[in-house]
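From the methods appendix. Each design record in this collection lists the tokenized structure first, followed by the designed amino acid sequence. Records were kept in a plain field format so they could be parsed without special tools. The example shown here is representative of the layout used throughout.

RECORD:
FOLD TOKENS (361 positions):
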């Protein structure tokens, strides 16, 4: 049975929106990309859902990349078995063709709207667009503050990690779970976000990791960054041993250690959880990072660590509230475009796209 994998191809981070769209397909190889251009509420996500439904029914594993600003909507659909990407190519994840018509094709939904109707509401559309952008910028400032606080907490804890014990565990884990493959070339690294800061709060696609690796390990960490360091080490060893890996970037530290890691060929996936977080279903194994710290350090600074994590939670809650407000503004903006759309014409555009994808091998 074909698998549906839910991810994010972009995320709200302390540095603003980080996009992985252009790394999700190979314009120099056999990839085919359909880049959808259109306004808010013009049917981009609905069209991608039709694509995903068709490819799953045809028996192809399908990755559905959700929108960080509206997780109920899709930003992209990837079908590795067809070397296919269908994506929203509008800001903030603009995708421009490198080899138009050869690899990438533009699907223009602007042909399906009534421009005159939109111009009649030009003032309101501009006002809502500007308010939405301002809301997102305010949300990013709170996320940046949370990132700075998290950096300070990691730096405070780092000197007290029992490095020899951590490295020894990592070596034993790799020997047991990731033996070197015979005559293997280095593995390939693919990046995704399995977690994101959204209008619904922090959303984590645990089910996707479990689908990629049926043995699931939960790493519990009180924001020290030690679990992320461990996953970075496992990622390096896995690729060196010849395994392809899917790296789940941490939206709070997108350039730091992974927040999750999947090694499908080894049927293995791992993810970082807070000390008081619980996976949706029991993991196959649980590892607490406190075992790699000097016991007296954790006892002595227990209140400080709790205070820092509490402050971090407060900043992230403000980010959540502002993203929720931005979505409400975006919903109002969408209504103007929905009223101006010719959905019969949109259906025809979708049928044409599905017919073209249906012939792909």
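DESIGN:
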């Amino acid at each position: 049975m074909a698998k549906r994998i839910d991810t994010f191809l972009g995320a709200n981070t302390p540095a603003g929106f980080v996009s992985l769209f252009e790394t999700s397909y190979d314009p120099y190889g056999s990839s085919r990309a359909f880049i959808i251009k259109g306004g808010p509420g013009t049917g981009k996500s609905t069209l991608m859902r039709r694509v995903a439904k068709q490819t799953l029914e045809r028996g192809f594993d399908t990755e559905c990349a959700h929108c960080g600003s509206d997780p109920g909507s899709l930003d992209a659909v990837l079908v590795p078995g067809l070397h296919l990407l269908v994506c929203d190519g509008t800001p903030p994840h603009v995708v421009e063709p490198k080899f138009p018509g050869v690899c990438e094709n533009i699907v223009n939904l602007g042909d399906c709207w009534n421009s005159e109707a939109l111009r009649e509401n030009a003032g309101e559309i501009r006002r809502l667009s500007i308010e939405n952008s301002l809301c997102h910028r305010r949300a990013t400032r709170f996320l940046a503050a949370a990132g700075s606080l998290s950096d300070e907490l990691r730096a405070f804890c780092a000197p007290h990690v029992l490095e020899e014990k951590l490295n020894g565990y990592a070596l034993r884990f790799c020997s047991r779970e990731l033996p070197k493959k015979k005559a293997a070339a280095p593995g390939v690294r693919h990046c995704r976000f399995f977690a994101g800061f959204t209008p619904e709060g922090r959303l984590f696609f645990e089910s996707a990791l479990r689908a990629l690796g049926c043995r699931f390990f939960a790493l519990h960490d009180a924001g020290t960054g030690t679990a992320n360091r461990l996953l970075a080490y496992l990622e390096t060893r896995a690729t060196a041993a010849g395994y392809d890996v899917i790296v789940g970037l941490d939206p709070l530290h997108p350039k730091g250690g992974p927040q999750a890691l999947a090694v499908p060929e080894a049927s293995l996936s791992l993810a970082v959880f807070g000390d008081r977080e619980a996976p949706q279903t029991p993991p196959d194994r649980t590892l607490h990072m406190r075992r790699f710290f000097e016991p007296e350090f954790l006892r002595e600074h227990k209140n400080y660590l709790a205070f820092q994590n509490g402050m971090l939670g407060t900043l992230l809650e403000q980010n959540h509230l502002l993203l929720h407000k931005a979505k409400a503004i975006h919903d109002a903006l969408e209504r103007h475009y929905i009223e101006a759309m010719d959905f019969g014409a949109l259906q025809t555009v979708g049928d044409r796209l599905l017919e073209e994808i249906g012939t792909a091998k």
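APPENDIX NOTE: Residues 302-340 form the longest helix (39 residues).
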